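re: that chain from earlier
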Amino acid sequence: MRRAERELAACTIRAPFTGVVSGLEVAELTWITANSELFSITALDSVQLDIEILVDELNMLQTGTPFQILSPKNGQVIKADRILGVSPQIDEKRHTGQAFARLSNPGRRWKSGQILPV
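^ sequence. v structure.
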């Protein structure tokens, strides 16, 4: 038992990049080996935005089109940037398309999966 405790104390778990643990991929007491996936890690230094756009408004967008993120509390602009791309696919059920952008996220203000008004 003491040997096992010493071996455990000598173990180090390292992530391949800096981020926030966002999921556990193994159950307690599972036997693992080197390079086993233990956690899901989300990098939040920058975040990708998937912006849902009504089909009727898609023709107004192209790469480089400016956009703003608005505060859900008061509608004020909290971040402005430009569209990186527009998907050619349309969601026929929702009558929407998607535009994409990437924002720097100092202080990790925005989270993965967060919904924001733009």
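The chain has two domains: 2-42, 46-108.
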